[in-house]
Automatic annotation (TrEMBL):
InterPro entries: DUF72 (IPR002763), UPF0759_sf (IPR036520). This is DUF72 domain-containing protein. Pfam families: DUF72.
Length: 283
């Protein structure tokens, strides 16, 4: 059984020299990250579809069972709101082809204004997607979290397409006031919706936002450790992404989460051994 864990990026200035080797060339950064975590959020694709050569490099640096959850470009999800985006979608899908099995799910993150009245558009969009990929949808309109009717309607739309509902759990983060600049910035930008934890497929995906303080982050994910172990016992293979406002320790936190799940579900396979930040010495 596999539980995959990862972060919101594979390169971070505060990881260099602490967790990852310093001064890595761009073509080696993902490879080093993949020795720590076996999944990553593809957030950069939200801003622009990458060159196919860049995606080929991503594939070359990762194992076939590494999981990319890749966000659709904002021109499709936020500007066109899933309508009339055929050409942009074709370009994006062609660019992602080199990932092959690594493209765990194509991630449709929708704006907070995309509400119950837009479900027909979402249903039509999902029906038009090629069956070769898995899809995951993240909504931020509060009606989907606070009203049972819209929630059931969304689950029905996703179920017909075999798509997963991706929760972004920020409940631990918003439990108390921010105490750092990074937390204050996140306080104004991150969605504030109730926690949702029902899996629709055999591969649930969770995004979790903790705090800059490690112990508060760990305390806040206790629910998800138990849920992930439960999913494993049900035969599911979840992917869990750890965020903190500054992400300075996200790599080690992701591995700690995995360790806590394995303590409850020993059948889960271990993560790879990380590449050392510094080369071994003779003495």
């Amino acid at each position: 059984m596999r539980v995959h864990v990862g972060c919101a990026m594979w390169a971070h200035a505060r990881w260099q020299g602490r967790f990852l080797p310093p001064a890595l060339p761009p073509g080696e950064r993902l490879r080093a990250y993949a020795s720590w975590c076996d999944a990553v959020e593809g957030n950069t694709t939200f801003y622009a579809t990458p060159a196919r050569s860049a995606v080929e490099s991503w594939a070359e640096q990762t194992a076939p069972d590494f999981r990319f959850v890749v966000k659709l470009p904002k021109t499709i999800t936020h500007e066109r709101r899933l309508a009339g985006s055929g050409e942009e979608l074709r370009s994006f899908l062609q660019a992602m082809e080199p990932l092959e099995s690594r493209a765990h799910a194509l991630w449709v993150q929708l704006p907070g204004s995309f509400g119950p009245g837009d479900l027909g558009t979402l249903a039509a969009f999902l029906r038009g997607l090629p069956a070769a990929h898995r899809y995951a949808v993240e909504v931020r309109h509060r009606a989907f979290f606070e009203d049972a009717g819209p929630a059931r309607d969304l689950e029905r739309v996703l179920g017909r397409a075999g798509a997963e509902w991706v929760p972004f759990d920020t409940t631990a983060f918003f439990r108390s006031r921010p105490t750092s600049d990074a937390e204050r910035d996140a306080w104004t930008k991150k969605p504030r919706v109730p926690r949702r934890s029902a899996a629709l497929t055999d591969r649930p995906i969770v995004r979790y936002l903790g705090r800059d303080d490690t112990e508060r982050t760990v305390e806040g994910w206790r629910f998800w450790v138990e849920k992930a172990a439960e999913w494993v016992r049900e035969g599911r293979s979840p992917t869990f992404f750890v965020h903190t406002p500054d992400n300075a320790d996200a790599l080690t936190l992701a591995r700690r989460f995995h360790d806590e799940v394995r303590a409850r579900a020993p059948e889960v396979e271990p993560l790879p051994e990380p590449v050392p930040a510094e080369p071994p010495t003779l003495f």
